[in-house]
Amino acid sequence: MIKQLSVNVDRLETLLHDFAQIGKTDNGGVTRLALTELDKQARDLLIKHSQAAGFKVRIDNIGNIFIRRAGREDLPVVMTGSHGDSQPRGGAYDGIYGVLAGLEVLLTLNDFNVQTRHPIELVMWTNEEGSRFVPAMMGAAVFTGKLAVEQAYLIQDRDGISVKEALEQIGYLGTDQVQNQPIKAMIEAHIEQGPILENLNQTIGIVKGAFAQRWFEVNLTGLAAHAGTTPVTMRQDAIVGMAQCITALNQLALKPSSGDVRLTVGMLTTSPNSRNVVADQAFFTIDMRHYEADLLQRLETELRAELTVIAKQLNLQIEIKRVLTMPVIDFDPKCIETIRKATNKYHYPAIDIISGAGHDACYISTVAPTSMIFIPCVKGISHNEAEAITRSWCEAGANVLLDSLLTLAT
Amino acid sequence: MIKQLSVNVDRLETLLHDFAQIGKTDNGGVTRLALTELDKQARDLLIKHSQAAGFKVRIDNIGNIFIRRAGREDLPVVMTGSHGDSQPRGGAYDGIYGVLAGLEVLLTLNDFNVQTRHPIELVMWTNEEGSRFVPAMMGAAVFTGKLAVEQAYLIQDRDGISVKEALEQIGYLGTDQVQNQPIKAMIEAHIEQGPILENLNQTIGIVKGAFAQRWFEVNLTGLAAHAGTTPVTMRQDAIVGMAQCITALNQLALKPSSGDVRLTVGMLTTSPNSRNVVADQAFFTIDMRHYEADLLQRLETELRAELTVIAKQLNLQIEIKRVLTMPVIDFDPKCIETIRKATNKYHYPAIDIISGAGHDACYISTVAPTSMIFIPCVKGISHNEAEAITRSWCEAGANVLLDSLLTLAT
């Protein structure tokens, strides 16, 4: 029986600790926005470790960093990796965990002197968060041809600095041609950024794909009126309408037949927004996500009908606009099975899971067989300085990544 | 049988039209904020008409204007009047109708050469709206000793100009001692600023008093979470909590046992207020008004209980603070009966009504017998450029004011 390889969790924790110093916040989080000086420091540190270990480093035209551990044969590459940028006052694991778990895998293969048939390539994608430059997942979008690099270059931050200028400023406007290399598979490790795995006492999420997503904007129009002089029965109160709509949407989401749809009203505004004036305007957004496109379509029909009835009952005008439509993403069955087998070898408690968030892997899945490995994060908290993982989750994710990459690269 | 006197409605409409030019907006409304150059123009015009008619004009230390038509005897004065300032983009009738109806009454008495026993005094109160300088009803508050004049002087607008400086700039920092004169009664005419009279086909509202009022601020605290990765069942969503609270408050207000309580959620904010983040914070205000103090107390107990249950069910923290408490105002029974008799003489359809809004008369009622006469405004719209009245309502209110003042001054 072959001894199961394991990563060096001490080294991985040290790496995570070292990278967490770059942009560290007072509350133990990280602010390391894309293409800033701090992002450059994280990039430089990754390259320093990689070159010390003898890996070949390339930079493409959008600043994605490719770190290759050579294979025995000139075969399509097996890729892994994630992003190094963070949200403003974000956490120390979102993105960077996948990068450093990948680096740890490569270093472990060095430790045990393992030769793979296929090369394995660790990638640090540029600007996944989209906090400084919109859109998010920019490096992966350019790499997969979904966003033209010349278009990406022109995008500016709030200070008017363009992506191209920022890449030049930090010295990461690369010239290496990586985009068209054959890819055998891509596995991205990431924290779940949600509470499911921890709640169910699971260590690994085997990611089958990502939710389809629809965004709506709803406008309700009533009549402004004096709060003291207008009987409640004679009002056309846009805030009451909004409240009834949000309550109805929440009930719709909680129906068993709605199958764990992720339905969120996260943004709202009202007018005139004054304590003693009945509101004539209310605006709110709906973010709705599910893995089944048919269900999402049925729920859209239902929500349109329900909100329209509420508006009519309250004598309000309603406008419901769909403003974003993203299809379901199905990850590759072979990649998923590879992760499942790896998980079984280590006897980690694992479940299949659907990603509710967007990830670089979602773009890569459009050009190569792809899947993801999720580890839990404490209380599901992410995009927050309080983001945390345990040592055992940290090790488990990297071990499953190690075995999956080894299987795919053999 | 004595012929019933009537005002000259053509003259009153001309006066309303002329004053509506001072601060006229593109949409037919008025912006005439307190103690501005436009307020000065309205004040000057009122004084010009008054002096031309032989009335004595006095200005007190907060800029209230007192226009006296002498009586036969040196008896306590019968007062009327309202305010000349408007909301930003407000209407052409709120306040100024009561001033000009009062002026029209004095001019009618001149026309018919009527001598009253008591003097009758028309007042234009300073800064009723509170739009430029907070608090509202400032002139009446100072006149009745509820606000110290030295304190009022220090209050600044957003540009740092104090009330005293503004009074000096427009030349209305008066020195006449009016505050301690004996007052027999005060009757204020005003548009209803609500929809009740028009809805019930009534021409006159006989105002019995003003609602007690309580303001609350509610804070809900949950946990911010990713809209895509967090199942709806695992959330602590402050926006869902707020929506359920507002829906419950509206249902509470509509209960028959809540007796036409005026309950309004008019202002709200949420955090982080982002489309794809479950909100961890929601703040909203409650404005609750009723004529029965006991009922208001019971409703406060009920709303606190109901909102607390909702918060608990949704795993949210809740804080409910009462931030304003205003008692019921009961107007003087004799003044009310005087108005009722006047209304009957002209056969105007009339009902008793409670003011849901604050008025200068509410302050005056603390120092002298007081009541108010309401006329309808179209669709109840007020504090809005679309504010409108009909010629017949305009005439009816002034006629009832004429007869009431005559009765009180005889």
The ordered string of helix (H) and strand (E) elements of chain A is: HHEEEHEHHHEHEEEHEEEEHEEHEHEH
What is the SS-derived class of chain A? alpha+beta
Tell me about the biggest sheet of chain A?
9 strands, mixed
* Count of structural domains of chain A: 2
**What is the radius of gyration of chain A computed over CA atoms, rounded to a whole number of angstroms?**
24 Å
The low-confidence parts of chain A are none
Work out the number of β strands of chain A: 16
**Pair of chains with the largest interface and how many residues each contributes:** A-B, 64 and 64 residues
Basic shape of chain A: elongated
Summed over residues and divided by their number, the pLDDT of chain A gives a mean of 96
Discrete helix count of chain A: 12
Distance between the termini of chain A: 18 Å
- State the helical fraction of chain A: 25-40%
What's the assembly state of these chains? Answer: homodimer
Strand coverage percent of chain A: 15-25%
CATH class categorisation of the largest domain in chain A = Alpha Beta
Assigned CATH architecture of the largest domain in chain A: 3-Layer(aba) Sandwich
CATH-defined fold name of the largest domain in chain A: Aminopeptidase
Tell me the name of the CATH homologous superfamily of the largest domain in chain A: Zn peptidases
What does this entry look like structurally?
Two copies of one chain form a homodimer. With 410 residues, chain A is α+β, with helices and mostly antiparallel strands. Chain A folds into two domains: 9-211 and 328-409, Aminopeptidase (3-Layer(aba) Sandwich); 212-326, Alpha-Beta Plaits, CATH 3.30.70.360. Chain A has twelve helices and 16 strands. Chain A has helices at residues 9-20, 37-52, 96-111, 138-143, 149-154, 163-170, 196-199, 238-254, 293-313, 333-346, 360-364, 391-409, and strands spanning 56-59, 65-69, 77-83, 120-125, 183-191, 204-210, 212-221, 225-226, 262-264, 268-271, 277-278, 281-290, 317-326, 329-330, 350-355, 370-375. In chain A, strands 1, 2, 3, 4, 5, 6, 14, 15 and 16 form a nine-stranded mixed beta sheet that branches. In chain A, α3 (96-111) links the parallel β3 and β4 (120-125). Chain A is elongated.
